[in-house]
Amino acid sequence: DAEITQSPRHKITETGRQVTLACHQTWNHNNMFWYRQDLGHGLRLIHYSYGVQDTNKGEVSDGYSVSRSNTEDLPLTLESAASSQTSVYFCASSEGRGVSYNEQFFGPGTRLTVL
Amino acid sequence: AQKVTQAQTEISVVEKEDVTLDCVYETRDTTYYLFWYKQPPSGELVFLIRRNSFDEQNEISGRYSWNFQKSTSSFNFTITASQVVDSAVYFCALSESTGGGNKLTFGTGTQLKVEL
């Protein structure tokens, strides 16, 4: 069955370290997204991609970067982790390049703690 | 800019009660899409329903029903005869068509607790 996976599921790191969170989907979806979930804020969009070599900034992109070298993967990198980036991170994908009406399928989430 | 408001932070009900979760949205687009997602205690996000801005028909799926009213910019979700398994955080989300692609703007969520 097609799925979307994230790794690691839990990560503890120190302030200033570079961290990469992996997202892999086997749906063959063009669209991929990264969100962070914080109490009182719901889910907020960090970065998104509508296809290979396409990346775009979302609402809360400062301190994060992504790259899309193939259809299946969209890794999220925290260049220099900060305590404010402690959060639960969700990756999602949807079909149809940039199409508005398709539902997104979410990964299981990565809980990141920055000490 | 688009915005989704879920004013109810937390709702507690007793099993078998009906409960309505409110969602109010703001958008300048005439074509847009609204979604509801469920996040049970296990943490995953589960898609429940999609509604486009041209379809104001209410929808019913088992114990779940959705009421979309463009006049009040609301897309409310009702659970009839609630069950303990309905306990979760419910998110309403908006996707615009104009330059918005498939990005979702989420509300802050409503925590529903159903007790015996």
Name the features.
heterodimer; A: 115 residues; mainly beta; seven-stranded mixed β-sheet; four-stranded antiparallel β-sheet; 11 strands; B: 116 residues; six-stranded mixed β-sheet; 12 strands; 0% helix
Structure description:
- The complex is a heterodimer of chains A (115) and B (116).
- Chain A is an all-beta fold and 115 residues long.
- Chain A has no helices and 11 strands.
- In chain A, strands 2, 4, 5, 6, 9, 10 and 11 form a 7-stranded mixed beta sheet that branches. Chain A has a 4-stranded antiparallel beta sheet with strand order 1-3-8-7, with no helix packed on it.
- In chain A, β5 and β6 (54-57) form a beta hairpin.
- The model of chain B has no long low-confidence stretch (mean pLDDT 92).
- Chain B has strands spanning 3-5, 10-14, 19-21, 24-26, 32-39, 46-52, 59-61, 64-69, 74-79, 88-96, 105-106, 110-115.
- Chain B starts with a strand and ends with a strand.
- Chains A and B meet through β4, β5, β9 and β10 of A and β5, β6, β10 and β11 of B.
Structural class, from secondary structure content of chain A? mainly beta
Helical amount among residues of chain B, as a percent range? under 10%
* Euclidean distance between termini CA atoms of chain A: 37 Å
Outline the biggest β-sheet of chain A: 7 strands, mixed
Q: Give the overall silhouette of chain B.
A: globular
* Overall radius of gyration of chain A: 13 Å
Please write the string of helix (H) and strand (E) elements of chain A.
Answer: EEEEEEEEEEE
Task: Count every helix of chain A, treating DSSP H or I runs of 4 or more residues as helices.
Answer: 0
Distance between the termini of chain B: 41 Å
Biggest sheet of chain B, open or closed, and with what strands and sense?
6 strands, mixed
The count of DSSP E runs of length 2 or more, i.e. the number of strands of chain A, is 11
Oligomer: heterodimer
What is the beta-strand fraction of chain A? over 45%
Quantity of strands of chain B, as a count = 12
* Helix and strand element order of chain B: EEEEEEEEEEEE
**Poorly predicted spans of chain B:** none
Q: Mean pLDDT score of chain A, rounded?
A: 94
What is the helical fraction of chain A, as a range of percent? under 10%
Evaluate the radius of gyration of chain B.
14 Å
Structural class of chain B: mainly beta
- Return residue spans of chain A where pLDDT drops below 50 for at least 5 consecutive residues: none
